[in-house]
Amino acid sequence: MNEKNIIAVVKFDDKQTSLDFSNACMQGGINLLEVITTRKNSFEIISELSHMEDVIVGAGTVLNVVSAEQAYNAGAKFIVSPHTDKNIINFTKSKGLISIAGAYTSSEIVNAYNLGADYVKIFPASSGGPDYVKAIKEALPFVKILVTGGINLQNSLDFISAGASLLGISTALTGKRVTFDKDVVLKNSENFLSSIN
Predict the structure, then answer these.
(1) Domain regions of the chain by residue span
(2) Which residues of the chain register pLDDT less than 70?
(3) What pTM value is reported for the model?
């Protein structure tokens, strides 16, 4: 996974909408997709996306090893959890997948790192903002950080400049619309990538 990149978070209940959203993101240049596993049809969606070219699909909100194994079997290449669970990390690493564990305080972040997480997910990033990420990176420069929750076009570069490696984005891609609009997602995808490069 390249540094200074964006993960599009797929969290629709409808399978076709999820696939259409993912395709729009890919057309806009985003090739990292995180499918939330607490939604319907998530493992089917992961499976379909995993067979597409030039895309890396992962599983999000993985709460236990059972879900991690289902994601792995479906073709996920990275596992994202909202918490730090050594069993999930161990399973993920044993299968050669990228492990992203949720943590917030410096103690939690160091614990996740020591357990083998490749990245630490800070959520919600909006509560501490870029200044919090900068402070963490100054103290723990060896930790790679994924920020999610409250990332938008106005602050995306600030988070990258503060030291975040990856930005997880969902609502900001859809433009907070009630209905899914492919053109809006495609354009927002392009704009987000431009904003950090």
Answers:
(1) 5-196
(2) 177-178
(3) 0.95
